[in-house]
Specification:
Helices cover 41% and strands 21% of the residues. The chain is an alpha+beta fold. The chain has two domains: 5-79, Beta Barrel (OB fold (Dihydrolipoamide Acetyltransferase, E2P)); 82-211, de novo design (two linked rop proteins) (Up-down Bundle), CATH 1.20.1440.120. The relative contact order is 0.13. The mean pLDDT is 96.
Length: 214
């Protein structure tokens, strides 16, 4: 067995392989988005059963095989359990995971997006924060992290909403969810986020279709 290395990240996708294994996609601080095999992770008594599910955040000890990474050990520090038991919250979270899977790559510097995802999942878990705002903030900041934010429109947006968008794309990620907006301004930010998401993140996201039907 090759020497193991530790990476910190969030499980953003899992795919069953064979009878008992999983292919796990992890957004990591050290290596961007990676895929790794978790042997036996679908067995009822597997130590990897819970730690290889979406939203699980922690440290993954991995080693390189002939064609992929393999997981040796996992230490999870946050499962985001409140999202798993909340139908609406779970689909917001899954939408965020899908967006991250769509726009990240292996061996890219994805630290900014990883931080954004972690803070946004925390915000979704907080009853005091409007999830419509969390979604708009996530979409706009993700576009900015990708280097594709086109700027604030010169027309069709109020000064208050424009200031909020400027805050979203410029403030440190840790402070993103420290503000609220009245509905009239929130709707402006939401509409701008939707328009920009369709233009700059044009993928077909299954969880988004479900979200918009709620």
């Amino acid at each position: 067995m090759q020497e193991c290395v530790d990476v910190t990240g969030i499980v953003i996708k899992t795919v069953p392989i064979g009878e008992y294994d999983k292919r796990v996609v992890i957004l990591t601080k050290e290596r961007g988005k990676i895929a790794a095999f978790a042997r036996g992770a679908r067995k009822p008594n597997s130590r990897f059963l819970a730690s290889t599910t979406p939203f699980a955040f922690g440290t993954f000890s991995i080693y390189e095989g002939k064609t992929s990474y393999n997981i040796n050990e996992i230490s999870i520090s946050n499962y985001f359990e409140s999202l798993r038991t909340d139908f609406e919250g779970a689909y917001y979270g899954m939408y965020f995971l899908e967006l991250c899977d769509y726009c990240t790559r292996e061996n890219n510097d994805e630290v900014g997006i990883l931080k954004l995802l972690y803070q946004s999942l925390r915000a979704l878990s907080a009853a005091s924060i409007d999830r419509r705002l969390v979604r708009a903030v996530f979409e706009l900041r993700l576009i900015a992290e990708n280097g594709e934010f086109p700027g604030i429109p010169e027309k069709g947006i109020s000064d208050t909403a424009g200031y909020a968008v400027s805050f979203i794309v410029q403030t440190p990620v840790e402070k993103l969810y420290t503000f609220a907006l009245k509905d009239e301004y929130l709707f402006e930010v939401i509409n701008l986020a939707k328009r920009y998401r369709k233009e700059f993140l044009p993928g077909n996201f299954q969880s988004l279709q479900i979200l918009e039907s709620l």
